[in-house]
């Protein structure tokens, strides 16, 4: 499998990102295995006398070999192999980091939305707390009014009882007054009759004293 991967690296230019230059052109490749680790040995022609970005046969000098770890390879294209020498992560990792950064930005935006919702909820909560305190104050006032109402109701019932007693007393007095009027009328009648009888007796006594006829009683 390593040899199959290695053959994909032949006939390509090698570019070093840390050094910022073209290292050479790969003509052959071997794989060296040590334990469970392996490295590529690039056999390549070094480039010299590069000028004005033009490529010609005189640019290639003697061949040389370099060892490249798989982790040193940032990306492999149709014409070039880009090396990071362990200082630049592979392109897939860079793409993954870009994806992670995008996901992070999305999460940050969601968090900002949630924070805005939390601020609104806090504002609504504070408003509800103020309204609740106002309702509690009104409730306390109503409780005081209820106590006053109960006291007034008790006094009213007491006064109503006293008023009813007064009415009964007035009725009693009116009955007594009626009885007194009757007694007074009877007394006046008796007194009138008694006075009339006394007057008749006096008149009769006077007539008898004078020898006149006695008036009938």
Describe the structure.
The chain has two domains: 2-88, Roll (SH3 type barrels); 89-181. 6% of the residues are buried. The chain is an alpha+beta fold. A six-stranded mixed sheet has the order 4-3-2-1-6-5. The chain has two helices and six strands; from the N terminus they run αββββββα.
**SSE string, helix = H, strand = E?**
HEEEEEEH
> What percent of the residues sit in helical stretches (DSSP H or I)?
55-70%
Shape: rod-shaped
Largest sheet properties: 6 strands, mixed
Q: Average pLDDT, to the nearest integer?
A: 78
The strand order across the widest sheet is 4-3-2-1-6-5
- Our estimate of the beta-strand percent is 15-25%
Number of contiguous helices:
2
